Amino acid sequence: xxxLLEVKNLKKYFPIQKGFLRKHVGDVKAVExxxxxxxxxxxxGLVGESGCGKSTTGRAILRLVEATAGEVRYNGIDVLxxxxxxxxxxxxxxxxxxxxxYSSLNPRMTIGEAxxxxxxxxxxxxxxxLKDRIIEVIEICxxxxxxxxxxxxxxxxxxxxxxxxxxxxxxxxxxxxADEPVSALDVSIQAQIINLMMDxxxxxxxxxxxxxxxxxxxxxxxxxxxxxYLGDIVELASKNDLYDNPxxxxxxxxxSAIPVPDPKMKRNIIILKGDIPSPANPPSxxxxxxxxxxxxxxxxxxxxxxxxxxxxxxxxxxxxxx
Length: 322
Ligand code: SF4
Ligand code: MG
What we know:
Layout: E1 5-18, E2 23-38, E3 43-47, H1 54-61, E4 69-74, E5 77-78, H2 84-93, E6 94-97, H3 111-121, H4 127-140, H5 157-169, E7 175-179, H6 187-204, E8 207-212, H7 215-221, E9 224-229, E10 232-238, H8 239-244, H9 249-256, H10 297-301, E11 306-310, E12 313-316
Parallel strand pairs: 3-8, 3-9, 6-7, 7-8
Antiparallel strand pairs: 1-2, 1-4, 4-5, 9-10, 10-12, 11-12
Helix pairs in contact: 3-4, 3-5, 4-5, 5-6
Pfam family, one: oligo_HPY
InterPro entries: AAA+_ATPase, ABC_transp_ATP-bind, ABC_transporter-like_ATP-bd, ABC_transporter-like_CS, Oligopep_ABC_C, P-loop_NTPase
Domain ABC transporter: 5-255
């Protein structure tokens, strides 16, 4: 299959400016080197601790922030260089679901208005057709038609996320960035939203970039998973390969810390020393060397190459197979 989305060497630096003259004194290297493909109908999970660049990656792909460098192609179209008209068309195809559905909804807009906003902006429907489309979209997201005249504060967290999903789906997109879509929800509600997203994916042939710090959530929904650390993807593999046979020491540490259903089960939690270094001043060589339990001298000096070790299983570490 030809990929729906191709991301190559994506980079996003935020300049740090100081003082009255706003002198440029450095950069927060939020995303340094991110490359992956996404196939039609596929879900790629993107995991890592907060601040690793997952959200910035999603936003740069959608051009909600402008990338510093790199390439993004959607159905072959050069997204990062698309002009206004083309970008407008791309915006119909590529949508985002946010972590906190409440703050992304205008409290003074009814649900019908919120879901219809993009439809009106794009001039796609009018009058009765617009109303019908709004009701169609909120119904496929599991809400009843009479909800259209209600306001966001009248809904629970889970219902608001359904509304957030309905807004994203109104324009009938093919690709959705879901940025921690269930992290603000109770665990009991999380599964409902994940199941809804999986149903919608099948029904509407959607592709997801599913961003989360929670490896158990990502495991449920993803076909493939990428692990990010300090702005880089350090491992990328099919879900089964990544969870059953992790290659990178960081992935191994993250997986070792996932809570298990049976607390008596024997397991070795790998505790990482220290905090995540600042993305304004990342460590030399392998950026993970300050916390890696098996780091060697070479790790401080040379950045490991991101290589394919088994079919479709990529990682960046000097010591794999050594
Ligand atoms: Fe650890 Fe070295 Fe591998 Fe980096 S390259 S993950 S520091 S062993
Ligand atoms: Mg984030």
